[in-house]
Amino acid sequence: MKAKTAISALKSVLSERISTSEADRNNHGGSETWFAPAPPDVVVYPETTDEVAEIVKICAAHDLPVIGYGAGTSLEGHTSAVKGGVCVDFSRMNKVLQVNDQDLSVRVQPGITREDLNQELRATGLMFPVDPGANASIGGMASTRASGTTAVRYGTMRDNVLAMEVVLADGRIIRTGTGARKSASGYDLTALFCGAEGTLGLISELTLRLHGQPEATAAAVCAFPDMDAAVNAVIMTVQCAIPMARIEFLDSLAVEAVNKDADMGLPVQPHLLVEFHGSEAGVAEQAERFGEVIADFGASGFDWSAKPEDRSRLWAMRHRAYYACLGLRPGKTAVVTDVCVPVSRLAEAVTYAREAIDAAGLTAPILGHVGDGNFHAILLIDPENGEELARAKVVSHQMVEQALSMGGTATGEHGIGMGKMDLLVQEHGAGVDVMRAMKQALDPKGIMNPGKMFS
C-alpha cells in the first residue's frame, strides 16, 4: 500500500518517466555476479537534481528504500533492491555541464559514462583517466570509489573527484568541495560520499579533475615463465619508479580465456599488459627501462607498439576479460573478489590466492591492476550448486584475511556491497561503529540503499 501511494506521488513529479513493468524492474534488480535477482518496486528516471530531491522526499515520507542506479556494472550486488523500493536510474542525467579547460576540470551529471565523457573531451586535449574496465557511469564510479587499469599513474576516483552535489535522505541538496585543488575548510564531505555506495545520499552532480592527453602512448605485452616471475617483475618496476600508465597481470588461466574469446594467440603463460604515456622520447625511454627490468625475470615476447589499433585491440581484450573468463564455464556465474596489499607483499598474496583456489578445487583465473597491489580472482561457480558456492565464499574470505594480515584491504575497488559486510568489521573493527553513527545521522530511517555495507 505504501508503494502504491508513493508511485502515485512519483507520477505527479515525473509523468511518464516511471516504470513498474516486470521487465524494467528485473533489468534493474540483477547483478553481474552470483547474487540472486532482487528487483525494485518501481524504476524512475529523473532529469534534474530537483527531481531527484522530490523523489527522495516522497520515499522518505513513505519509508521506501531508495537505490541509485548508473550502468549496473558493479560486482558486489550494489544495485539490488533487497528490500524493494524505488530504483533511481540516472541514465537521463548524462550531460557535460561545463568544461573548465584552463582549470583542468569538468562538471558533469552522474549518468554520463566514462567513455562518453572522454568522447566529449577529445577536442579539448584533456581526458578523464579513471578506467575500471566496464563503461561505468561516473556517478556509480564515485559511489564505489572505483579505480582500474590507470590508477597506478592517475589515481582512483578519490583522487579525481573535486566536488559533488548530493541529495540527502530527507531530500536536502548539499554541495561538497569546490573547484579549488585543495581546501582545509571543515570535514571532507566529498571523500565521505565518494565510496559510500549510495548509503548516505544520491550524487546528482560531480566536478572532476582532468589530465592532459599524452603526446605519445605505447602499449606492450610480455610473457613470463611462471606467476612469481611476473609479479616480482611488477614489484621491481614499481620500486624502480618507472612511471607506468598501466601494468596489468593475467595468469595462465586468464590468458587461456582471452585467447578463446578474442583470438589473441598469446602463449599460455602468465602475462603483463603495460602502457606508457608521455613524450615520444619519454615513452621510448620508459619502454626501454621496463624491458631491462623484466629481462631479469625471464620475460619473453616483449614488443611495444605506438599504433592506435594495436593498443585498442589489447585493451579491448583486457576490458572483456571478465566475460572471457566466464566463457571457461559457459552458462555459469562467478564470485568475483578483489583485494589490495602493499606492493612489496604482492607476490606473496597472489601465490596464497592461487594455492587456496587450487586446494578448494575451483576454476578461477587471477588478474588485476597489480601496479598498485590490487588483484582479482574470478571464482567460477554453478549458482545452483550450493556446496560449490560455499567453497568459493570460503576462498574469498581466506584471500581477504590474508590481505588484512599483510596490512592490506578487503577490497581495492569493488566495494563492500552485499558480499563483504562481515569483512568490513574484520578490517575496521571499532571504526565500523563510527561509520554506523554517520549512517544513522544522515539516514535515520535507513532508506538509502539498505542491505549494503552494513548488515
Number of helices: 17
- Helix/strand-derived category reads alpha+beta
Can you give the mean pLDDT? Answer: 95
Number of strands: 18
What profile does the largest beta sheet have?
Answer: 7 strands, antiparallel
How far is it from the N-terminal to the C-terminal residue, by CA? 26 Å
List the strand order in the largest sheet: 15-12-14-13-17-18-16
Shape: globular
Topology:
Layout: H1 2-14, E1 18-19, H2 22-27, E2 42-44, H3 49-61, E3 66-69, E4 86-89, E5 96-100, E6 105-108, H4 114-121, E7 126-127, H5 138-143, H6 151-154, H7 157-160, E8 161-168, E9 173-177, H8 189-193, E10 201-209, E11 211-212, E12 216-223, H9 227-239, E13 246-250, H10 252-262, E14 271-278, H11 280-295, E15 300-305, H12 308-319, H13 321-326, E16 333-340, H14 346-359, E17 366-369, E18 374-381, H15 386-405, H16 421-428, H17 431-442
Parallel strand pairs: 2-4, 3-4
Antiparallel strand pairs: 1-2, 5-6, 6-10, 7-11, 8-9, 8-10, 12-14, 12-15, 13-14, 13-17, 16-18, 17-18
Helix pairs in contact: 1-3, 9-14, 14-15
Folded structure, characterized:
With 455 residues, the protein is of the alpha+beta class. The protein is built from 17 helices and 18 strands. It has a 7-stranded antiparallel beta sheet, with helices on both faces. Helix 1 (2-14) runs antiparallel to helix 3. The longest helix has 20 residues, at 386-405. 47% of the residues are buried.
Summarize this structure briefly:
This protein has 455 residues and is of the alpha+beta class. It is 38% helix and 21% strand.
Q: Which features characterize this protein?
A:
17 helices; alpha+beta; globular; 455 residues; five-stranded antiparallel beta sheet; 18 strands
